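User: Can you help me understand a structure? I only have the sequence.
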Amino acid sequence: MHLYQHLDKVLAKALEDVWHLTKCLKASPNDITFAFRQYNDIRRTKTAGIIETGRQLARSIFNPNEAYCQQRNLVSKQTDYNAVAQGMAKGWASGLPIGDVSNRVS
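Assistant: Let's start by predicting it. Here is the structure, written out as tokens:
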């Protein structure tokens, strides 16, 4: 695996972390403990959703049940992947000041 293979994701997460932490610190400049607690809550909620989605995908891809795999493959042929990409973009952009991302994915 190349060292920089996932660097874009790491950098995006770091920038998002800085943005949220800055926002929390500005909102509570006299209570750093509260600001960090608020930041942790914001990031934990989003990160937990992303992790669970990844787990669901992995369970689907590596499921050993043949009937399950056949059904999964049929459903995948009928999937609107543009809508899936738009949903993913909205999820990643949630809570960020970048506006509506649904028209940026085609």
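Now, to help you interpret it: DSSP finds four helices and no strands in the chain. The longest helix spans residues 32-61. Let me know which part you'd like to focus on.
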